[in-house]
C-alpha cells in the first residue's frame, strides 16, 4: 500500500485529534475505582518523598486529575502499575494511550500546531525516544529520584531509561523439550530447526529483532552468511504478542527472542509454552521516558516520572509489568535467573550505541530480508 504524504497524514491526525478534544475523551484510564485516600506508602529518600508530596499537592491544587502517557506497548501490561500509582497519589489517574513510534511524533506535531496539548509523558524504545528528544519534542527536567540512576541511562536530561523489556528463547512444550533447546545461534541454524522457529521481521516497527541482531553482530556471534541462513531457515512472523500466540498455537516450536510479559501470562493460564535464557537469545531492550514540551498536566507528569524511579515502582515494574528496572537494587522479573540478567547486561550496548547501530543496520537488515542486499 502506498504511504500517504506526511502533510496529508498530519491533516488527518489533526482532524481526529480535534474530535477527541471536542469530546473530551479520556482513553484507557486504568483505575475504575475513585481513590480518595492514600493506600500505598511512598518510598525513596526523605527528600524524594518530600519532592513527590510537593508535586502531588501542586497537581491537586491545579486541578490536574490525570497524567497522559504515550507509550509503544499494549495497555494491559501497565494497568496494574498505573493502579498502584493512583493508590499512592489519590485523585490522579493515568490515562494511557498506545501509540506507535510513527504515531507518537504525528500526535506531538498536531498538538504543537493546534496548541491543544493533551500528552504529558512518552515511553518509547531506545532509538525512538532518543530521536524524539533530538527533534525537540521533549523538555529537560531532573527528578530527584534519578540521583542514583547511572549516567548511561540518561540522555540530555530529557530521557530517563527507567527499565528494560525482557526477551528470551520461547518454546512450545508440546513440540520440544527444554533439554533439547538450541543454546546459541549456530545450533538454532541446524537443519533440525528448519522452519520450526519464528521471529519479528528485522526493519519492522517493533525493532526487537534488530536490537538482538545488532548485539550479536557487535559481539561477532553472527556473520552475514548466518544472517542469510536465519532468514531462509526460519520465519519472519509476528513480533511481541503475535510471536507468543504462534508458540501457544503450536505453529512454531521456537521463538528466539520471545517477549516475556505475554508469554508468562499465557503460561500461567496453562498454555503449554515456556522460556529459557541462553546468552544469544536473552535480550534487554531499554525503554526511555521523558516529558513532552508544554505538558498538559505538568505537575502530575513530573510526579509520575519521579515515581517511576522509586524503589516501589522499580519493584512493581518487575512484579506487575515483567520488566527489569535500571535503578540499583531493582528486583528481577519472575523467572529471569540472576546469572542470565547479569550476562544480558554485560552483553547489551549502551542506549547511544544501540541508537547509532540501528541507524546503520536497520536498512541493511531490511534489505537482506527483502533479498536485495
Automatic annotation (TrEMBL):
Top-level taxon of origin: Bacteria
Keywords for the protein's UniProt record, in alphabetical order: Signal
Keyword Signal part of the UniProt annotation: yes
Keyword Signal: yes
Pfam families registered for this protein in UniProt: SBP_bac_6
Protein's name according to its UniProt entry: Extracellular solute-binding protein
The organism of origin for this protein: Pseudomonas helleri
Amino acid at each position: 500500500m502506498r504511504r500517504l504524504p506526511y502533510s496529508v497524514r498530519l491533516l488527518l491526525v489533526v482532524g481526529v485529534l480535534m474530535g477527541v478534544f471536542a469530546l473530551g475523551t479520556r482513553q484507557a484510564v486504568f483505575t475504575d475505582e475513585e481513590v480518595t485516600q492514600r493506600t500505598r506508602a511512598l518510598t525513596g529518600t526523605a527528600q524524594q518523598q518530600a519532592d513527590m508530596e510537593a508535586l502531588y499537592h501542586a497537581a491537586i491544587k491545579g486541578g490536574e486529575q490525570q497524567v497522559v502517557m504515550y507509550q509503544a506497548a499494549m495497555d494491559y501490561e501497565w494497568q496494574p502499575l498505573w493502579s498502584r500509582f493512583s493508590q499512592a497519589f489519590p485523585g490522579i489517574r493515568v490515562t494511557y494511550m498506545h501509540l506507535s513510534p510513527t504515531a507518537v511524533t504525528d500526535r506531538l506535531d498536531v498538538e504543537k500546531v493546534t496548541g491543544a496539548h493533551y500528552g504529558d509523558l512518552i515511553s518509547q524504545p531506545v532509538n525512538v525516544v532518543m530521536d524524539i528528544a533530538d527533534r525537540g519534542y521533549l523538555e529537560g527536567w531532573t527528578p530527584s529520584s534519578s540521583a542514583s540512576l547511572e549516567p548511561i541511562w540518561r540522555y540530555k536530561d530529557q530521557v530517563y531509561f527507567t527499565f528494560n523489556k525482557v526477551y528470551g528463547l520461547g518454546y512450545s512444550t508440546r513440540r520440544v523439550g527444554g533439554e533439547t533447546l538450541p543454546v546459541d545461534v549456530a545450533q538454532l541454524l541446524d537443519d533440525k530447526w528448519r522452519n520450526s522457529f519464528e521471529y519479528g521481521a528485522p526493519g519492522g516497527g517493533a525493532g526487537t529483532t534488530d536490537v538482538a541482531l545488532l548485539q550479536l553482530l557487535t559481539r561477532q556471534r553472527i556473520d552475514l552468511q548466518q544472517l542469510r541462513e536465519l532468514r531462509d531457515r526460519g520465519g519472519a512472523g509476528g513480533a511481541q504478542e503475535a510471536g507468543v500466540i504462534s508458540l501457544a498455537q503450536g505453529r512454531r516450536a521456537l521463538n528466539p527472542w520471545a517477549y516475556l510479559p505475554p508469554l508468562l501470562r499465557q503460561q500461567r493460564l496453562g498454555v503449554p509454552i515456556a522460556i529459557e535464557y541462553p546468552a544469544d537469545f536473552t535480550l534487554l531492550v531499554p525503554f526511555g521516558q521523558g516529558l513532552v514540551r508544554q505538558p498538559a498536566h505538568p505537575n502530575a507528569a513530573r510526579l509520575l516520572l519521579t515515581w517511576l524511579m522509586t524503589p516501589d515502582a522499580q519493584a512493581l515494574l518487575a512484579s506487575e509489568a515483567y520488566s527489569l528496572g535500571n535503578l540499583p537494587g531493582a528486583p528481577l522479573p519472575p523467572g529471569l535467573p540472576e546469572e542470565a540478567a547479569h550476562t544480558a547486561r554485560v552483553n547489551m550496548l549502551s542506549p547511544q550505541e544501540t541508537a547509532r547501530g540501528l541507524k546503520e543496520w536497520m536498512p541493511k537488515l531490511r534489505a537482506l530480508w527483502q533479498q536485495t542486499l
